[in-house]
Amino acid sequence: MISFAEIDKENNGNYLNLLSAVSKLSGLFSESSVPYINYRVAENIFCKSFNADNLSRSDIAFDANYNSLGVGLKTFVCPSNYKIEKIAEFNSLSKTLSKYQGKDLALKLAEFRNERIELAKRLYNIKDALYHIVARKENKLYLFETDYEKIDIDKIQNVKQNGTSLKFDDVNNDYSFNFSKSTLFRKFYIPDNAFILPIDIIEDPYNLLLSLLKDSGHKYAVQKKASGKNYIILPLYGLTKNKQKFVFRKSGLNQWNAGGRKRDPGEVYIPIPKEIHKYFPDFFPQRDKDFELKIPTGEIFKAKVCQDNSKALMTNPNKALADWLLRGVFQLQERELLTIEKMNILGFDSVIIYKDSKGNYRIDKAKLDSYKNFIIKLGMDV
What is the pLDDT at residue 222? Predict the structure, then answer.
């Protein structure tokens, strides 16, 4: 199995150095001799060091894409030789899961977990996967890789349930599910051959930071991502009068199902709510003007905003969007309706569109309720 610590050493890279540098500043956050590394910092260091695509903000099964290798990144304090860590949340499916118990529940959890993994592979053209772990002990970091396999449904055994949780294994790994948080956990073991990185925590990191300011002859520019300028979020659903989500049966991603004439099964579009144009009138090009839209696999579509009130984001050919999103991501057959239930199972109901300073666009999935949180943050009515 690949070892990122060894890759970094062989290439005189920055990964181990950056992990060490951040760990040395642990005194900013704790008096413990166990190094402190925020998980987001660990993800960013990994992606920067290995030139990997950072997927952590996409709420997908993998945190990084390293040359079509899906990487789950974990950093945790580990006083013994193992640690039980969260690997998936199923809040949107809690009502569905509450109908099952015992082995039936374990089977349903495995099904949902495996579907999330397959979704991530389809979205980002992932061929294989592994976990990269940074386990933190007293004055040391233990780095190692372990398997990132789907749960072997046929080998689920040793199912034990109590009032708060369910435990089971599939011969390869041990799992547990917390009922109240709808969260699935896995037990990770530190192997004997883990790479050990010694850490000397700086006794007074504050003086170091002050010295950096004194030595710096200039101020650092901070570039922020701004809603409506760098990105927007679009919902793949509509809302009933009672604010319940639903997928339009005869428009949007189900437009192929509309009446009036015979329609091609690839005739679809992503709805653009009128609020987006109202608050961000300059984000998209003018109506019917072609632009390039990059999807997560790296493929580039020709796209445009069209229809009355510029309510639709479409691709040319139109079926390119359907082939990617409906057939590839949601795994729907031709003329099979997309539903909100399908979105809940896969864990996303919105897409995020990024635009860089050169006017290049790219699209990615956004986790459940992203659009709702987006407009609330902007002070708009849900």
Answer: 46
